Amino acid sequence: ISVIIEGINCTKPTSRTVEVITIKDIAKALNLSTSTVSRALRGSYEINPETKRLVMEYAERMNYRPNPIALSLKENRSRSIGVIIPEIANNFFSQAINGMESIAYNRGYHVVISQNHESYERELVNTQYLAQRRVDGLIVSLSGESNDLEHFKELQSKGLPIVFFDRVPQDYITHKVSADNFVGAYEATAHLIQQGFRKIAHLTSPSWLSITYERLEGYKKALQNHGIPIEESYIKYCSHGGMIPEEVEKAVLELIHHPERPDAIFSAGDRLTTSSMSLIKREGLRIPEDIAIVGFTNLISAHLLSPALSAVTQPAYEMGQLATEFLIDLIERPKSTIRFETKRLETKLVIRESSLKPA
User: If you ran DSSP here, which 8-state letter would residue 305 be given?
Assistant: First the structure.
């Protein structure tokens, strides 16, 4: 029913003795009390940022790792965090998971990952499964079908901390972490306009997702600010975010065979972008000579595609880190949160060959 991937620290067996670094060792080396080091490693607000930085850097350098079993027995917690994402194969989510684990590992937590594959039903089952495993909290990026959040609200009402990232609900009171999708989309569309393209299409995800709305608004605002009418037939929604090839093919072919074929496409996701490039070429058209393209993607291989892909990239690693810091703070200091935060991190437009109009 669900795919669960647990973060397991696998080390190569060796005959050499590995020295175990303790909190006492760190305290002695930095001339601090053990209680100060312990609180700094937990991210306590009582410790000043400079001391936290010194402790964390030294702990990382000396490969200090807390004992999660001892901690779970002491604190009556599982010391595990549940993460629900659309798919691990997506470069953005794999980078975000690396960021989550970088924080969780140093704070003595394991990360349990589950994929919803853009399915509400899978998301519901996975959420219930993780709750039954008594994870201490959840980090969630909503599926393409999730416009009912009662399963999350019920768990949160029972005391389970939940943080949303990337695909975040609008009317939900908790911490949220996302990229500045509006600005990223605006800059991508404005770049195409500055290159001389005027018939710019937008290929995107389900309309109710936050990332869809924000990127669509950025796209529309760029067109409006440059005096270009918004053509609704140029906007195509793929309700499964590119995971169903036939759905993407239908949308892209409708654009290619449009009576006023667009001269550029701004695509809102990894699969949508790569599928678009493949279909454009299959139909005998050239990129960017016939149709230019800019993607909203964290593809590591974007510069290796033919042509090299212009892309809006998100700080996925940092988003994962921040979401995890928020969640652990809710877990360890449940009564101290007065105000929930919504953080939007800056995106970056990387311009390559796919969006440069030939001279």
Answer: S
